[in-house]
Design brief:
The structure is a single chain. This protein is of the alpha/beta class. The chain is built from 14 helices and nine strands. It folds into two domains: 10-70 and 114-183, no CATH class; 204-405, Leucine Aminopeptidase, subunit E, domain 1 (3-Layer(aba) Sandwich), CATH 3.40.220. Strand 6 and strand 7 form a beta hairpin. Helix 4 crosses helix 8 and helix 12 runs parallel beside helix 13. Residues 1-5, 70-114 and 179-188 have low confidence and may be disordered.
Length: 409
């Protein structure tokens, strides 16, 4: 769309989404919805030569993600209550439940959770993994189940709202324009962590509870909780990838006598958590932390693995974005969850280990990641000095950034 061109109207987008609902995504190349194509172009999904149908599908996926994190009328985003003891965001997780009337439940304080809209929209258009080619009746039935109503009642009621809201999310993306490198603009400079202008410094006794390791995390021993960096879909790296996530997944897997993996423990438990919280195929809120057992890492004295969702996939599907503030949110969530689980173990949990969250495929410069991580951990230790913290980095130069927060050699 050329500069100055008006984006498509909400009414036209709604009409095209209604027309697309029955034939599904497979019909995009045949029906060629003009307004959706214009919106995909305006939102930057056609960059790099992406064909029109693929761009529209990517646009709809992004719009569904937008609905899944939609704020309530008081401005609070879904899942904004922070992680509870189970690592979820509040009592019901980021995907709200629905009442007997089929309307999304309002949380205490009146905040309407936006997640049912996103889930129902994803089912309606087959945007979840393995559902792209399902029939229209099957998709409608699955969408109706999100609200706990019959398919016919959903058709006459909630389906109209879902499609209208999805059109609104598409329009918002079109009006926002391309984000990041695809937009052709200069990326904003990444901020440094806040400077503490007042207040006490960390006491020497607390500083001595911080240790820096130049090592791979999976080789460490006798640390209660290891923190892994994940994307917002909680999909771990492949076991052959040279990432913290891949290394922990590989080290935690249960193997038979021939060395073949018989239980991919961490990935399995994350999939179970997503399924239990109704999030399969949809992202979680950046900064959320989900716990799993250690699997085979228990043999090294590890008792928990915490998975911090810090990397948000970009529209092209090959890159990720990490907001430095998300690192601080994740660190706070790690400490809160650790405090909640601390006394459930005998002896109690006492130690945490952080890698350079967000500095791999997350695209955050390692120096910037180290500064934010060090700052966020020190802020938490001011309130929770009973924890022992370990930092780990494979690069001695990066490990050096942590050393001014540590008395360890």
């Amino acid at each position: 769309m050329s500069p100055g061109t008006e984006p498509p109207s909400h009414e036209r987008l709604t009409e095209e989404l209604h027309a697309l609902r029955r034939p599904g995504l497979a019909a995009l190349r045949r029906i060629r919805p003009e307004a959706l194509a214009r919106a995909a172009d305006a939102a930057g999904f056609t960059a790099g030569g992406t064909d029109e149908a693929a761009a529209i599908e990517a646009l709809l996926e992004a719009a569904v993600r937008r609905l899944a994190a939609a704020p309530g009328p008081d401005g609070e985003a879904a899942g904004a209550n922070g992680p509870g003891p189970s690592g979820g965001s509040g009592a019901s997780g980021a995907f709200g439940t629905s009442g007997a009337s089929g309307a999304p439940v309002r949380e205490p304080g009146g905040a309407r959770r936006g997640d049912p809209l996103g889930r129902a929209a994803a089912h309606t258009f087959g945007l979840l993994p393995g559902l792209r080619g399902t029939s229209a009746p099957e998709r409608r039935k699955a969408a109706a189940a999100v609200y706990g109503v019959t398919a016919e009642r959903f058709r006459r009621g909630q389906e109209q709202e879902v499609i209208a809201e999805l059109a609104g999310a598409v329009l918002a993306l079109a009006r926002t324009g391309p984000a990041g490198p695809a937009g052709g603009g200069t990326p904003a400079a990444l901020p440094d962590p806040p400077t503490r202008a007042a207040g006490p410094e960390l006491p020497p006794a607390t500083l001595r509870r911080i240790t820096v390791h130049v090592s791979s995390m999976e080789l460490l021993r006798d640390i209660d909780i290891l923190v892994s960096s994940e994307n917002t879909h909680l999909e771990m790296s492949k076991t052959f990838r040279p990432t913290v996530s891949g290394a922990l997944r590989r080290a935690a897997a249960i193997r038979d006598g021939a060395g073949e993996i018989t239980d991919d423990v961490l990935a399995r438990e994350l999939a179970d958590w997503l399924r239990a919280h109704g999030r399969t195929g949809l992202p979680v809120r950046p900064g959320i932390v989900v716990p799993t057992s250690p699997g085979a890492l228990a043999e090294r004295g590890v008792r928990r693995v915490y998975h911090a969702a810090v990397a948000r996939p970009l529209a092209d599907g090959t890159r990720y974005h990490v907001d430095p503030q998300t690192l601080a949110d994740a660190v706070a969530a790690v400490f809160a969850l650790a405090d909640a689980e601390r006394d459930a173990y005998d002896p109690p949990l006492t130690s945490l280990c952080f890698p350079l969250l967000g500095s791999g495929q997350g695209g955050l410069p390692p120096v910037k990641a180290a500064r934010w991580l060090r700052w966020a951990v020190q802020e938490e230790l001011r309130r929770r000095p009973h924890w022992t913290v370990h930092f780990v980095a494979r690069d001695p130069e990066l490990a050096q950034l942590f050393n001014d927060a540590s008395s360890a050699p």
